Here is the input.
Amino acid sequence: MINLEVDIAGVKLKNPIITASGTFANGREISEYYDLCELGAVCVKAITLEPRRGNKPPRIAETPSGILNSVGLQNAGLAYFMKYEIPFLRKYDTKIIANISGCTIEENCEIAKRLGNLVDLIELNVSCPNVKEGGVAFGTNPKITKEITKRVKENCAVPLIVKLSPNVTDIKEIAKAAEEGGADALSLINTILGMQIDVNTRRPTLANNTGGLSGPAVKPVAVRMAWEVSSITDLPIIGMGGIMSGEDVAEFMLAGATAVAVGTANLVNPTACVDIKKEFINYLDENNIDDVHEIIKAVKIF
Here is the structure.
């Protein structure tokens, strides 16, 4: 029997497969395809203090080996999540990660405080490139990253994950700032800011003009950043960015990730997470690996 259990800041996950925020909704539709108990954790769609309609359409556009999205954090708000989504997810033997995305530091603190210990972990989104207020400014400035992490951590009853933006000059500097602010774990990367133009209409394909690029196209950047961050911190890392196969999971873990989040793949295949989990187990089995910890941060650098 292969040991798949991993530890994220004291929270035990039965396996390292997590759903990435924004690509899985809150599990209701996917639960019709497989048992959510198969997952190490469910990271829910970003939660804002009040209901949010998001950006005007079109909000998603296909690109070579990926997608651009500018959904704009559409969600039903914190009160709805607490009343309806948490009870639904608690029916399954999996951990709940609440991704929070307030427009101000105070909003993020309020969301974290009200969630209390109703969830297992909180993921602080300081990196979303689609929201004009907050978002990028929080996650691209080390001083502000440290401040928001510290303030939100003071209001958290559960471990705090800080989700890092790739739209920075030095990811290690931002990671260190989050650690100094009290982060219990880090997740990376969020989407890369991009743009696509329709050459016939001469207009951007997204109504917001720009959006976040995700999918296999960003994986080499994500793996590199996971490796860089793992070299300067001992905090658990949740790696994400273009994971489509079991070997992709292994690649992130070799780079230093303790767990991974599957995102865009869910939009292509509703059973992506369980398929990727099976492929990852096959990889471990074929390589005679009895414990997933054997490959964490095990890359052999030249």
Observations:
- The two ends are 33 Å apart (CA to CA).
- The longest strand covers residues 95-100.
- Residues 6-294 form a domain with the TIM Barrel fold (CATH 3.20.20.70).
- Confidence is low (pLDDT under 50) at residues 129-135.
